[in-house]
């Protein structure tokens, strides 16, 4: 079947869009719930995988399993709520109600120039309202996750005040960044019509590149306090590593991640010719300089092997492909009519509806994404290994997993869909780790 036939088939389709969207939504929920069920069984195991015996004691393992179960139960509840929300949106034409409501607000916005009352501004209002509504609904979930789950396991360092302040900042930032992007993108869709995918794709890629620079340099500092890593063993080791592999290190910072959570992390950011390495104080406080350098060797491995650029290229191909597919649905009368739009066909709503139709493809793409990102993780581990950090990296990975209570064991199908990183036993075995018992170093 050619694409033209496919398009006309959809256009003249004589079936219920509501049934299709409902079916796909329930299908996705059923599939991911089945994965959760499989993972829950693994999280009920009482002993760590054979390859990790001696590295992780039973008590720590049990605690990480319990943490994993709590998080999974919470995610499943979240998902059930999301399903009900989607079904209500489909059944009660909530997009049309939001569209009309945002139209009424726009009509009352006398401060805007009169040339700004078209579909683009209306789309921006729709997006703003929808984002605010979604954020408000998600607040109780976020509160529960931070104070009940993270708090129970000793990870949360937020107070109610600091958490609320972060939420307000998040909403403001997503609107300040999101609204102009929505305006630019839908202006392009409006201008180019059905041939928007290539232009829309190009602009989205440029926006992603800009965001990759803006977020770590300007947004992250709004949430954390930066200070320079002091002179000493750690700083010398990191600088030596950077110069050995030609990383254009300009600044070395530590941020107060411990003010919010005791989970640890490290990342790098900046422009191609001038970069900074950022370490969470939680990482510095709990690891030796050699272990931290090994973690950074892994991170810089991602840089050296162009993983970020490759990921951007990979995502861009997917994006343009999706835009082409969505173009087949965006100009479909019956789709809009069925969801309460008889006189206008706002593409922003078309995209929202398309996201339901696209669910099975999204699912397949997720599996592909995971394969790609795990491949990169193995490559970055190998890079650290090749530069002499094998033992420190092994120690660091075990320590980080224990401290963060990261799920150590996983069902293969759940893992293939959810995990961007291989789990600890997989990474250790790729690094050639032998359990301490086999090495005769049993503690
Ligand atoms: Zn990595």
UniProtKB/TrEMBL annotation:
Membrane topology category: Multi-pass membrane protein
Residues of the CAAX prenyl protease 1 N-terminal domain: 39-225
Binding, Zn(2+): 298, 302, 377
InterPro entries according to UniProt: CAXX_Prtase_1 (IPR027057), Peptidase_M48 (IPR001915), Peptidase_M48_N (IPR032456)
Domain Peptidase M48 residues, every copy: 230-432
PANTHER family xrefs: CAAX PRENYL PROTEASE 1
Keyword terms, alphabetized: Endoplasmic reticulum, Hydrolase, Membrane, Metal-binding, Metalloprotease, Protease, Transmembrane, Transmembrane helix, Zinc
Alphabetical list of Pfam families matching this protein: Peptidase_M48, Peptidase_M48_N
Residues at the active site: 299, 381 (proton donor)
Top EC group: hydrolase
Primary localization class, coarse: endoplasmic reticulum
Cofactor: Zn(2+)
Ranges annotated as spanning the membrane: 119-144, 171-192, 198-219, 308-327, 347-367
Gene from which this protein is expressed: Piso0_002625
Cofactor details (free text): Binds 1 zinc ion per subunit.
Species the sequence originates in: Pichia sorbitophila (strain ATCC MYA-4447 / BCRC 22081 / CBS 7064 / NBRC 10061 / NRRL Y-12695) (Hybrid yeast)
Listed GO biological process terms: CAAX-box protein processing
Protein name: CAAX prenyl protease
């Amino acid at each position: 079947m050619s694409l033209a036939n496919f398009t006309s088939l959809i256009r003249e389709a004589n079936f219920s869009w509501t049934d299709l969207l409902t079916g796909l939504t329930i299908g996705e929920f059923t599939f991911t719930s089945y994965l959760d069920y499989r993972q829950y069984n693994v999280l009920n195991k009482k002993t760590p995988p054979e390859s990790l015996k001696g590295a992780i004691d039973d008590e720590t393992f049990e605690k990480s399993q319990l943490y994993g179960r709590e998080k999974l139960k919470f995610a499943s509840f979240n998902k059930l709520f999301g399903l009900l929300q989607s079904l209500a949106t489909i059944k009660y034409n909530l997009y049309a109600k939001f569209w009309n409501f945002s139209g009424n607000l726009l009509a009352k916005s006398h401060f805007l120039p009169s040339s700004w009352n078209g579909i683009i501004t209306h789309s921006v209002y729709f997006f703003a309202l929808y984002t605010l509504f979604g954020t408000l609904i998600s607040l109780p979930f976020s509160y529960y996750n931070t104070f009940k789950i993270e708090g129970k396991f000793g990870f949360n360092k937020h107070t109610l005040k600091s958490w609320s302040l972060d939420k307000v900042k998040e909403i403001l930032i997503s609107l300040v960044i999101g609204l102009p992007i929505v305006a630019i993108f839908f202006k392009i869709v409006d201008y180019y019509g059905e041939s928007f995918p290539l232009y829309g794709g190009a602009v989205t890629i440029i926006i992603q590149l800009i965001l990759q620079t803006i977020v770590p340099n300007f947004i992250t500092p709004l949430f954390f306090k930066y200070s320079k890593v002091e002179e000493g063993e750690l700083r010398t080791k990191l600088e030596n590593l950077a110069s050995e592999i030609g990383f254009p290190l300009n600044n070395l910072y530590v941020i107060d991640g411990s003010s919010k959570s005791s989970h640890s992390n490290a990342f790098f950011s900046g422009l191609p010719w001038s970069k900074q390495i950022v370490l969470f104080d939680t990482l510095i406080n709990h690891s030796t300089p050699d272990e931290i350098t090994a973690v950074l060797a892994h991170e810089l491995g991602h840089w050296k092997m162009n993983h970020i650029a490759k990921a951007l290229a990979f995502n861009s191909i997917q994006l343009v492909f999706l835009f082409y597919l969505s173009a087949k649905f965006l100009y479909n009368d019956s789709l809009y009519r069925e969801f309460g739009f008889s006189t206008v066909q706002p593409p922003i709503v078309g995209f929202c509806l398309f996201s339901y139709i696209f669910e099975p493809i999204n699912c397949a793409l997720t599996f592909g994404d995971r394969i790609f990102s795990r491949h990169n993780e193995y490559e970055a581990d190998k890079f650290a290994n090749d530069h002499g950090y094998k033992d420190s990296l092994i120690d660091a990975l075990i320590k980080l997993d224990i401290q963060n209570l990261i799920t150590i064991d996983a069902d293969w199908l759940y893992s293939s869909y959810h995990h961007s990183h291989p789990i600890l036993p997989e990474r250790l075995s790729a690094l050639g780790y032998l359990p301490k018992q086999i090495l005769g170093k049993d503690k």
